[in-house]
Amino acid sequence: AQRVTQPEKLLSVFKGAPVELKCNYSYSGSPELFWYVQYSRQRLQLLLRHISRESIKGFTADLNKGETSFHLKKPFAQEEDSAMYYCAGNTGKLIFGQGTTLQVKP
Amino acid sequence: NAGVTQTPKFQVLKTGQSMTLQCAQDMNHEYMSWYRQDPGMGLRLIHYSVGAGITDQGEVPNGYNVSRSTTEDFPLRLLSAAPSQTSVYFCASSYSAGEAFFGQGTRLTVV
After folding, report:
1. How far B105 CA sits from the closest chain A CA (Å)?
2. How many Å apart are CA A39 and CA A11, to the nearest integer?
3. Nearest to B19 by CA among B92, B88, B66, B76
4. Per residue in B58-90, pLDDT tens?
5. What is the distance in angstroms between the Cα of A97 and the nearest Cα belonging to chain B?
6. Contact state of B45 with A46 under an 8 Å Cβ cutoff
7. Beta strand pairing status for A100-105 and A10-14?
8. B79 neighbors B16 (Cβ within 8 angstroms)
9. pLDDT for A47-100, tens place per residue?
10. Nearest CA in chain B to A2
């Protein structure tokens, strides 16, 4: 089955610490993967897409086809990064993982 | 530019009642979809549409109907509400099943 998996429900780090939010996918073909973010009381919005290989708000994500992973990373977490993060994949329809809540403590 | 607009924002239903969640977009997107968001379950796809007149089932379609008579609108109908349908519902639109723009959500409680 086509699936996107985020193994961690909650990730809690201190301000300034590195962050890695894990995402694994299991579907065939060339994956098109995304990270979405939902800040408190805001709409879900696109953060990154693997095609563009860009860095947004200090976050990067690399597609690793060998490990079927698309982990989201940031070297130094900020308190304003606290949010719910979703990994998503385009399989002809957009499917999401279970989400990871990132909590950045002062 | 309004983007994706969902109505209502909040709704309480009694078990067995029916209702329609409205979704409208003004970006001329072909692809629209409905999700439900539940704690620990993430966002699960209910139904989606790749254009006017075309709809398909997602991961959790049971108990919901959709139609797409125009490019702009994609309503979600609950046929006979059940407590298990208590959730936050999100509508999204995009040019393809990729970079999606989301509505603000509808918080539905079924008692």
Report:
1. 8
2. 15
3. B76
4. 999 999 999 999 999 999 999 999 999 999 999
5. 6
6. no
7. parallel
8. no
9. 998 877 778 899 999 888 888 999 999 999 999 999 999 999 988 889 999 999
10. B59
Contact yes or no for A57/A45 (Cβ under 8 A): no
Place of tokens 């999700």: B35
Report how far apart, in Å, the C-alpha atoms of A63 and of each of A68, A92, A100, B44, B106 are.
7, 19, 18, 23, 33
Alpha-carbon distance A24 to nearest alpha carbon in chain B (angstroms): 15
Closest CA to A37 of A27, A47, A26: A47
Nearest CB to B97 within list A9, A93, A98: A93
Q: Does A95 touch chain B (CB under 8 A)?
A: yes
Tokens, residue B39? 């704690």
> Which residues lie closer than 8 Å to B73 by C-beta, 6 or more apart?
B22, B23, B24
Whether residue B8 has a cis bond before it, omega within 30° of 0:
yes
Q: In 3-state terms, what secondary structure has residue B85?
A: helix
